[in-house]
Amino acid sequence: MKLAIVGSGYVGLVTGACFADSGNDVICVDNNKRKIEMLKDNRIPIFEPGLRDIVERNAKEGRLKFTESLEEGVKNSLVIFIAVGTPSDIDGSADLSSVLKVASDIALCMNGYKILVVKSTVPVGTCEKVREIVKSKTKIDFDVVSNPEFLKEGAAIDDFVKPDRVVVGTDNVRTAEIMKELYSPFVRTGNPIIIMDQKSSELTKYASNGLLATKISFMNEMARLCEKVGANVDMVRMGMGSDSRIGYQFLFPGAGFGGSCFPKDVRAMVSIGKQQGVNTKVLEAVNIVNEDQKKVLPNKLKIYFNNNLKGKKIAIWGLAFKPKTDDIREAPSLVLIDELLKMGAKVTVYDPEANQNCKGIFKDKIEYAENNYDALRDAEALVVVTEWSQFRRPDFDRMKNLMKENVIFDGRNIYNPIEMKEMGFTYFSIGRP
Ligand code: NAD
Description:
Layout: E1 2-6, H1 10-21, E2 25-29, H2 33-40, H3 51-60, E3 64-67, H4 70-75, E4 79-82, H5 97-109, E5 114-118, H6 126-137, E6 142-146, H7 156-161, E7 166-169, H8 173-183, E8 193-196, H9 198-229, H10 233-241, H11 262-276, H12 281-294, H13 296-304, E9 313-317, H14 332-342, E10 346-350, H15 355-362, E11 367-368, E12 381-384, H16 396-402, E13 407-410, H17 417-422, E14 426-428
Parallel strand pairs: 1-2, 1-4, 2-3, 4-5, 5-6, 7-8, 9-10, 9-12, 10-11, 12-13, 13-14
Helix pairs in contact: 1-3, 5-6, 9-11, 9-12, 11-12
Bound molecules: nicotinamide-adenine-dinucleotide.
């Protein structure tokens, strides 16, 4: 099938690469000149495990192309995916300007029947808006389909080629069949392609992210309770997760959730609720709890250092909002660095993939280490913010030799409190004695 993917970011590039890898002819479009130049030059603008190989192979074999020209993408494709960003507007609602602009631009260069697939996460009614915009600009026949994406950064390829389910919102039987054909290589083990009406499809994505974010905020609240009453959140989590109605997933407390999806999607849902006169109290609380949680690590440091961090050297391991990505959008590390700088601390950071993105924000206000041990030189405390696997079993003796004080604040509970004490560290974690 001939496809165009408009927006070559975390979702668009993975989508394009995986569809090309299953034999389709794919053109990835982006209006970011630098991105397209990099991709044409065989360089991948983001870090996503496994993506480089797939992009390289399919580009070499001519199934995957890159262009800045939307017209080129549209004219050469039957199905056009819209995968541009839908960031939060000032009032928390989803900013649809990119989606609607792309829809309008597609209409102006259509040369025959097209299927426009909205893959971006969008509020209910957006596909309808896309339809109206395109219809107002062209007489050529087209269909609009909702097809929200559920991939996780860090495991995006696997999620895309082995989806738990594919959700397709359309009431057009012919379009549904084309979407089923497109996704059929990825659901050979019987995972469902769920065809539903467009509004339900649009809401399914928000509802899924809303529930996952709720689980995290719930556990963060439990962790805070645990600290006060002297319980251990690890034990509570095990006890809860073994209940088959609850399950173990998404029950890990931490430094707060970040990323380009959960915070903005929860805000967007609250905003949809307001517009519709539905009080979304649970969702409002989810983001409030999360904002508070991002302050937990800086507050623990404040208490430990008696409110005096001026001139203290603090090392941070992990900047990305989760391991195996370079994405730092709304990451808890950003709040921590901000707070530490406000208190006059000297901050040195290390992340295996996200140092460069962090430089874009904090410039030379902080130092960027070449590796995790270099970050520790003369540090008076280490804060672990992202649970990259290379941080899980470090050389603790080497760490002690490098650090000025053996103090660790573990925002992801990756170390054992008893072992840390035995090794002579002053150790703080989340929700554990
Ligand atoms: P992104 O910021 O990484 O990528 C968006 C891309 O669109 C950018 O490269 C940008 O240059 C491009 N773009 C913007 N306007 C354009 C235009 N007019 N023409 C061509 N290109 C344009 O965003 P993302 O993380 O890939 O997210 C895209 C959408 O997918 C969002 O709605 C997001 O909520 C949703 N989503 C994201 C994830 C995730 O894990 N990142 C998962 C599921 C769904």
